[in-house]
Design a protein that fits this description.
Helices cover 34% and strands 13% of the residues. It is of the alpha/beta class.
């Protein structure tokens, strides 16, 4: 599993700061105080895709997905309480913050997405990110002690290369092709690879730059062991 190079991660940091909404959330990330928490998926990819199309970084961004991992409290009530608190914290931003506990993703996955199968419980937020349905959106970021940390199981080449590559781990061909149909009119310069060129669905070990963010980072970021009900389109707990 390739590690994210420091130069590439710095480029990601510079690009994300051009999105003033994400920039503020990252600057205040330690106020989030949730274990193993990350900004993930669509908000990151859409920022890069917008910049690659000469659009403002915030163009079309309505939702920001934040995941965390708390295996000690799998209740929907706790998850909803965290979401309300963080929406209040960032209520002045013109986006909707979706907050999900990946430790509880297996409790709702089959009913929510109706793919006809269940999933095993995730062991961390990084493990969940490694199942996201495209390589370019399988990315998480956070800022700890002034330093950007990046979780990118498939690296950042496809993201910066404006390549949309499917990942078969937890989605179907129909789901992927529906995403492509939805994205193509908005970001026509992206290279959309066919389903046949998908990353296989085998288990992968997520690559994380800047500390072993799966462990050390989660303690600095609000708890002991890290702590979901749905995930929508741009967010990838399923799927974006």
């Amino acid at each position: 599993m390739p590690m994210v190079g420091l130069k590439t991660q710095n480029n990601l940091d510079i690009a994300l700061r051009q999105n003033k909404w994400l920039g503020e959330i990252l600057e205040r990330f330690e106020e989030i105080v949730l274990p193993d928490s990350w900004l993930v998926a669509g908000c990151i990819a859409q920022t890069i895709w917008n910049l690659g199309h000469g659009q403002p970084a915030e163009f079309g961004l309505k939702d920001v997905d934040l995941i965390f991992f708390d295996e000690l409290d799998l209740s929907f009530e706790a998850e909803a309480s965290h979401e309300r608190r963080l929406r209040d914290l960032f209520q002045h931003l013109p986006i909707k913050l979706d907050v999900k506990n990946e430790a509880r993703g297996h409790l709702w996955y089959e009913d929510r997405f109706r793919f006809g199968y269940s999933i095993k419980p995730y062991l961390s937020s990084a493990a969940a990110i490694a199942t996201f349905p495209t390589t370019a959106t399988a990315v998480g970021v956070r800022q700890i002690c002034g330093k950007l940390e990046c979780c990118a199981p498939f690296g950042l080449d496809d993201l910066f290369g404006l390549v949309v590559r499917p990942h078969k781990r937890q989605i179907t061909r129909a789901v992927y092709e529906a995403k492509v149909d939805r994205w193509r009119p908005i970001w026509p310069r992206l290279t959309y690879l066919p389903w046949e060129e998908a990353i296989p669905g085998q288990q992968r070990r997520p690559a994380i730059r800047a500390q072993t963010a799966d462990r050390r980072g989660m303690r600095r970021n609000g708890g002991e062991r890290p702590q979901q009900e749905q995930r929508g389109e741009s967010g990838e707990t399923q799927p974006s």
